[in-house]
Amino acid sequence: MKMSAQKFRWWMFGVPVALIVLAGAIVALILNATNAILNSADGELTEVILDPTAEGYEIYITPTPSYLGIVEDQSGELISVVVISLFPNDIGGSLIVLPSELLIGEEMTAGEIYNINGVVGLEQSVGDYFTVGFDSTGVLSNDFWIEHFSQIGEITVEIDDPLTTSEDGQQIVVFDSGNISVAPERLDDFIAWENPSESPYNRWVRNQRFWSSWVDLVRTTDIDLENSDSSEPQLMRMLAALGRGEMLLFEPPLVEESSSRASFSTNRDDMKSLILQMIPFPTSASSGSRPKVKLLDGIGGLDLPNSYVPPLVASGAQILLLGNAETYGVDKSQIIYHNESLLPLVNDFSNAISGAELTYDPITETAIDVTVIIGRNSLGLD
User: Given 54, 102, 266, 323, which is the most exposed site by the fewest CB atoms within 10 A?
Assistant: First the structure.
């Protein structure tokens, strides 16, 4: 299923997250023991609370699983960048394909960054641009295509126009149009191919279809990808999960630039919003770039995942804990930060939570950077 930022809704994650919280009693002893340690600044363990509706309940939030795929041709040139994220319980997920010609910022394309700074530089640039970190990164090239598709079988991809070349003035069809089967040893050519004078947009469309067809093939295979002897085990986890459920294929809002070099631009805010829909519980792209936040319901019965997590994450938070305040009946929302250097970021949080009061509390021995408590005033219940 193809998705755009306008069509996707947070409730698609809210129900699974709510189920995780409600089903937390199964693993609550472990999770709340973790919380007790996280909350303990003085070495004393707090009481373990198992009821998710009770005052003082907290649960640790696992970041959304994510993968950054770097697709290159046999010469080492970047073809595309792929971001994959998973739904809860590794059942289904989201995928987006970004062309190598995409401008990451205002000056350099993803391909140019890769040529100069390599894998680490591209991963950092993409992460900083989207303000998210990735669990793992893999480079996908000819050796991997042959290894993987020799195991699971040939892939069939639909293309609109034949892929051609010229020889002695004659046009030669390399890949015909329609539904074509591509042998593993020819995948590198297929993925990298551009017809003479062809817009890179067409190659990007073919690469999108390739990934969709790949997931369809995974759904039909009897091979246990997660336990296969693959050079890309993290990608195998992602593919297996996509094959078990629905895959949402996101399309970036690309604008083809009219310049001497082939490139696409995009609105950064729109792209960040789209990526955060794919990765609703992100980690930091670099150390400390997203303060770790504990988000608490100070009233009782609030829908934290859908109503308060998205604006906080969009403002730069990493949600580490969700739960309830020690006592309900909080009148005024509070944003309590534990490190003075976080004030500029915390000011953004105050824009996300209406009526919140900023307070500095210098706790040094805690994994939490900021505690946010939602009170009655943020709901207009003064």
Answer: 54
Decide if 335 is inside a domain: yes
Q: Is the dihedral of CA 246, 224, 212, 105 positive or negative?
A: positive
Read off the pTM.
0.87
Q: Are residues 119 and 151 in the same domain?
A: yes
- Calpha distance 266→269 (Å, rounded): 9
Helices 200-220 and 233-244 cross at an angle (nearest 10°) of 70
Task: Please indicate, yes or no, whether residues 132 and 104 belong to a single structural domain of this protein.
Answer: yes
Digit-coded pLDDT (tens) for 249-292 = 999 999 988 776 789 999 999 999 999 999 999 999 988 899 99
**Angstrom distance (rounded) from CA 319 to CA 286:** 16
Instruction: For residues 120 and 34, give the distance between their C-alpha atoms in angstroms, rounded to a whole number.
Output: 32
* Strands 58-60, 2-3: pairing kind: unpaired
Provide the residue type at 229 as one letter. D
Q: Can you tell me the distance from the alpha carbon of 312 to that of 345, in angstroms, rounded to the nearest whole number?
A: 11
Which of 9, 6, 5, 1 has its CA nearest to residue 305?
9
Q: Which two tokens stand for residue 233?
A: 């085990």
- CA–CA separation, 300 vs 293, rounded Å? 19
Comparing C-alpha atoms, which of 156, 155, 193 is closest to residue 172? 193
Q: Contact at 8 Å (CB) between 293 and 63?
A: no
* Domain ranges, residue 100: 66-264
CATH of the domain at 291: 3.30.70.2390
